[in-house]
Amino acid sequence: MTQSFIHIESPNYIRLEDLPKPPNWSAVFGNENPLALEIGCGVGDFMLKTALDQPDTNFIAIDFYNKGCYKTCRRMDRHEVKNVRVLRDEARLFVTDRIPKGGLSAVYINCPDPWPKKRHRKRRLVNREFVEFMMDYMRPGADFYFATDFDDYGIDVAEMLPKVSMLENQFGSDLYRHEFPGYHLSKYMRKFMAEGKKIYFLHYKVK
């Protein structure tokens, strides 16, 4: 997909070519705080609220779209956020190349592309293979969050996650919930809810 690129000049933006493989994230952030990852940061409103709520966590926000990275950086800069770094990359490649094994304390995935046509659903990011791949990069006790407005996607992931032996459902017997107090809503979630759609929230921890 062709993108029209916007030059990003921000203390919170890191160009991939400037980041070693593997990077020293403690040096990048200047501290030893836990490291969390948001896959698909959109325009950065969820990340901003979450980072402000958790100043003792270092957040990496990635997105494939340059415009999303640009808008996310602008939000962080306006609010003088110090504990977020934004990068543009594809999720699997970024995790493989830039995240140490067992290095993540949390992973957030909000409203990823649902690929609604049946023939395209194999392109969805969150499936059992991807979640099991992520287990290598998450430490014991790490949180895995997933949210979607798309019914079929939400139910598919909700029925799949209990089959991942390393994960424990934090919603008890509920496979998903439509309300998640304390979990910030992104711009897209609010838009979908205003249209009468329900959000499927899932929260698991690594055993």
TrEMBL record:
Catalytic activity as recorded in UniProt: guanosine(46) in tRNA + S-adenosyl-L-methionine = N(7)-methylguanosine(46) in tRNA + S-adenosyl-L-homocysteine
Residues at which S-adenosyl-L-methionine binds: E38, D63, E90, D113
InterPro entries (alphabetical): SAM-dependent_MTases_sf, tRNA_(Gua-N-7)_MeTrfase_Trmb, tRNA_methyltr_TrmB_bact
Pathway assigned to this chain's UniProt record: tRNA modification; N(7)-methylguanine-tRNA biosynthesis
Keyword DNA-binding among UniProt keywords: no
Enzyme Commission number, as recorded: 2.1.1.33
Binding site for substrate: K117, D149
Superkingdom of source: Bacteria
Enzyme kind, highest EC tier: transferase
Residue ranges the record marks as coiled coil: none
This protein's UniProt keywords: Methyltransferase, S-adenosyl-L-methionine, Transferase, tRNA processing
Stated family: Belongs to the class I-like SAM-binding methyltransferase superfamily. TrmB family.
HAMAP family for the chain: tRNA_methyltr_TrmB
Function: Catalyzes the formation of N(7)-methylguanine at position 46 (m7G46) in tRNA.
Record protein name field: tRNA (guanine-N(7)-)-methyltransferase
